[in-house]
């Protein structure tokens, strides 16, 4: 038998749309009219008794698998069509001798965003089942298929991240996963004509998925209120009974309004309000997509009864192995805050937040990826994510800022940090095979940035990518260079400090792989000192005009050892960073500041910065249960209250960890 890529007939003849382009280039293939499709597949099959059975399965964009009425797994991790992940799942305990029912709920979102490679008119399902070494089931035209008519969209959430749902429990497809469901009216699945996937086995395990009850459940008039005690990523699951056509309104949020109601129109620009229409029987509201939230309220019509409220939590499997030693109770609280953020925030990718974007940014990966790897001492997800970004070089040799996704963005700061992240990851376990896999991308990235190298060996006018420095922009400590998009002409400090770090990491990787070094590092360091160091100030300045020294302009020279062979310069940089403190920068830059201090033997001073009441303790004072995107809720116009990139302490203060 040959497994086919099968789909709903609506997609059978569609050619894939090209959604890939350089970050600032116009989109050549706009989103089509096909969006928000919940597509169901079912198959009954008679199987002999088997000792071991495993299923290879994938879907575009996503699937949830049920066998004999029970939930089994979901996925796959987002990926590019030329290296599309399938999952291999042990289903030995799920099967029985005789009739077995396989039910799969797939989803094609159809939006250009950071979540998936979607909006490309690719929608399909693929699987093959092996029992005791024999192939016994494949995806083919014998499967039954139907759209799920119970789902309709109530508008988009976040940055076109998801659709808010109106769910009708009286839809005929409700209960499709149950063995006794009648699918005789469904059509046969179609075989997708233009299937251009190259399948690859996912190197990471399926998500952990489980339900938790609310810490507080109370009624306020016609509204049922739930507090789950802390923010998590998942879905609100509700069981209720009422009259056919009764409508319940479900609202979730990260915080409460002054009157105690749930702030569902959230500060992170997500509106979490959804509708549920009852069937007249006992119904379950279990939305397909996930959110980041702590609180929920359910507006219940008179006569309806809610029997159960739960949160279905989802995250990458987690087991803490790192050791932290500190006498500071405040730092222990900060470490716990960061640990929970990484624990519950890590999904199939290292998402920047589970609300607004839900995508994997390379800059976030540099922090949240390291933090998760340190915490668990398991580099599998980090390696997979790095290789995802390597594959983005087929779009831009300078590496995309978000991957894998159909949203195209390039950020020079992130790209320049990439080789150091690769090198750091290699040092966790010495996996030379992984390092070799990155080589062609790293070599192409070096060639890409050489195009912006001036006669002195510095980068000038890197105008094809956003020059970020730090974010939000009000936390750049007055950085004195116009960071327009595209950036203006001339050289500035941070991009060139990162260029030195880029070259240093490239050279070390090349030595490990037995390749010739770049031959540019020493010259770039000398040119950097000449261009940006002010003898009068004893500090590095933002531009060659040497009129202003932002803290950012001195963090990376300390981190990369630029000019710090001079002990006085080293002391000046350490003192300046400690005097300015973390509140003069964003939580993103705070990682590099703390790493620079710890790397040069200043752990105690780094610890004092971390416990500054205006840094992580401010989040705790404002009620954080997961780390914020900024030091306080009001520091950014769209602050996410669940942001794993704010977890630097997990990396720099772990016993035996490599800070950078």
3D structure, described in words:
The protein has 660 residues and is an alpha+beta fold. The protein folds into 3 domains: 6-188 and 195-204, Galactose-binding domain-like (Jelly Rolls), CATH 2.60.120.260; 210-315, Jelly Rolls (Sandwich); 329-631 and 642-652, Glycosyltransferase (Alpha/alpha barrel), CATH 1.50.10.10. The protein has helices at residues 329-345, 362-376, 380-391, 412-429, 432-450, 493-513, 521-532, 552-560, 567-580, 587-599, 603-610, 616-621, 649-652; strands at residues 6-7, 37-47, 53-60, 62-67, 70-75, 84-90, 98-108, 124-131, 134-138, 144-147, 151-157, 162-168, 187-188, 190-191, 199-201, 208-212, 216-220, 223-241, 247-253, 273-277, 282-285, 291-299, 305-315, 533-534, 539-540. Strands 11, 12, 16, 17, 18, 19, 20, 21, 22 and 23 form a 10-stranded mixed β-sheet that branches. Strand 4 and strand 5 form a beta hairpin. Helix 2 (362-376) runs antiparallel to helix 3 (380-391), helix 4 (412-429) runs antiparallel to helix 5 (432-450) and helix 5 crosses helix 6. The longest helix has 21 residues, at 493-513. It is globular. The model has no long low-confidence stretch (mean pLDDT 96).
Structural class: alpha+beta
Which CATH class of the largest domain is shown? Answer: Mainly Alpha
Let me know the average pLDDT.
Answer: 96
The CATH topology name of the largest domain reads Glycosyltransferase
DSSP summary: helix tally = 13
As a percent range, the share of helical residues equals: 25-40%
Q: Which stretches are poorly predicted, pLDDT < 50 over at least 5 residues?
A: none
**CATH architecture descriptor text of the largest domain:** Alpha/alpha barrel
What is the approximate shape? globular
Query: What is the radius of gyration computed over CA atoms, rounded to a whole number of angstroms?
Result: 26 Å
What can be said about the biggest beta sheet?
A: 10 strands, mixed
Question: Termini separation (Å)?
Answer: 50 Å
Give the beta-strand count: 25
**What percent strand?**
15-25%
* Domain unit count: 3
């Amino acid at each position: 038998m040959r497994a086919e890529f099968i789909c709903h007939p609506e997609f059978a003849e569609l050619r894939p749309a090209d959604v890939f382009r350089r970050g600032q280039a116009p989109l050549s293939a706009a989103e089509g009219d096909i969006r928000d499709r919940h597509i169901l597949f079912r198959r009954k099959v008679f199987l002999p008794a088997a000792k071991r059975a495993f299923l290879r399965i994938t879907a575009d964009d996503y699937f949830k698998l049920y066998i004999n009425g029970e939930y089994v797994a979901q996925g796959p991790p987002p990926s590019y069509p030329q290296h599309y992940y399938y999952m291999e799942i042990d289903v030995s305990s799920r099967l029985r001798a005789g009739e077995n029912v396989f039910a799969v709920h797939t989803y094609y979102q159809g939006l250009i965003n950071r979540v998936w490679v979607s909006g490309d008119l690719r929608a399909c399902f693929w699987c093959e089942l092996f029992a005791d070494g024999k192939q016994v089931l494949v995806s083919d035209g014998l499967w039954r298929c139907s759209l799920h008519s119970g789902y309709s969209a109530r508008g988009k959430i976040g940055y076109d991240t998801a659709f808010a749902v109106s769910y009708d429990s009286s839809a005929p497809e409700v209960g499709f996963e149950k063995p006794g469901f009648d699918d005789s009216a469904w059509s046969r699945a179609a075989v997708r004509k233009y299937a251009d996937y190259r399948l690859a086995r996912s190197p990471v395990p399926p998500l952990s998925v489980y339900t938790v009850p609310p810490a507080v459940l109370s009624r306020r008039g016609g509204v049922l209120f739930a507090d789950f005690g802390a923010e998590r990523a998942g879905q609100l699951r509700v069981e209720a009974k009422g009259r056919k056509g009764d409508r319940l309104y479900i609202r979730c949020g990260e915080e409460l309004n002054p009157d105690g109601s749930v702030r569902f129109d959230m500060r992170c620009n997500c509106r979490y309000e959804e509708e549920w229409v009852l069937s007249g029987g006992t119904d379950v509201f279990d939305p397909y997509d996930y959110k980041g939230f702590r609180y929920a309220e359910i507006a219940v019509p008179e006569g309806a009864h809610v029997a159960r409220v739960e949160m279905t939590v989802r995250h990458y499997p987690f087991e803490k192995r790192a050791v932290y030693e500190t006498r500071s109770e405040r730092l222990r609280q900060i470490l716990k805050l960061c640990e929970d953020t990484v624990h519950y925030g890590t999904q199939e990718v290292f998402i920047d937040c589970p609300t607004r974007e839900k995508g994997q940014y390379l800059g976030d990966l540099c922090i949240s990826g390291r933090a998760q790897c340190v915490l668990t001492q398991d580099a599998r997800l980090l390696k997979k994510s790095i290789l995802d970004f390597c594959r983005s070089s087929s779009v831009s040799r300078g590496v995309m800022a978000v991957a894998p996704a159909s949203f195209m963005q390039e950020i020079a700061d992130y790209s320049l940090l990439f080789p150091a992240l690769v090198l750091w990851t290699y040092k966790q376990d010495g996996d030379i095979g992984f390092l070799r896999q990155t080589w062609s991308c790293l070599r192409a990235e070096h060639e890409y940035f050489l195009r912006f190298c001036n006669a002195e060996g510095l980068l000038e006018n890197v105008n094809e990518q956003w020059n970020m420095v730090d974010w939000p922009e009000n936390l750049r400590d007055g950085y004195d260079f116009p960071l327009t998009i595209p950036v203006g002409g001339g050289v500035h400090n941070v991009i060139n400090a990162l260029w030195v770090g880029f070259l240093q990491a490239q050279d070390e990787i090349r030595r490990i792989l037995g390749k010739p070094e770049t031959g540019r590092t020493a010259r770039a360091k000398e040119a950097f000192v000449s261009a940006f160091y002010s003898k009068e100030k004893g500090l590095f300045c933002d531009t060659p005009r040497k009129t202003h020294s932002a803290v950012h302009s001195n963090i990376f020279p300390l981190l990369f050892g630029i000019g710090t062979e001079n002990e006085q310069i080293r002391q000046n940089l350490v003192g300046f960073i400690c005097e300015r403190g973390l509140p003069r920068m964003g939580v993103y830059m705070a990682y590099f500041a703390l790493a620079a201090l710890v790397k040069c033997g200043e752990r105690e001073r780094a610890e004092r910065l971390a416990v500054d009441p205006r840094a992580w303790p401010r989040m705790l004072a404002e009620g954080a249960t997961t780390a914020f995107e900024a030091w306080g809720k009001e520091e950014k116009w769209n602050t996410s209250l669940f942001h794993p990139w704010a977890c630097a302490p997990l990396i720099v203060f772990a016993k035996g960890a490599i800070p950078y």
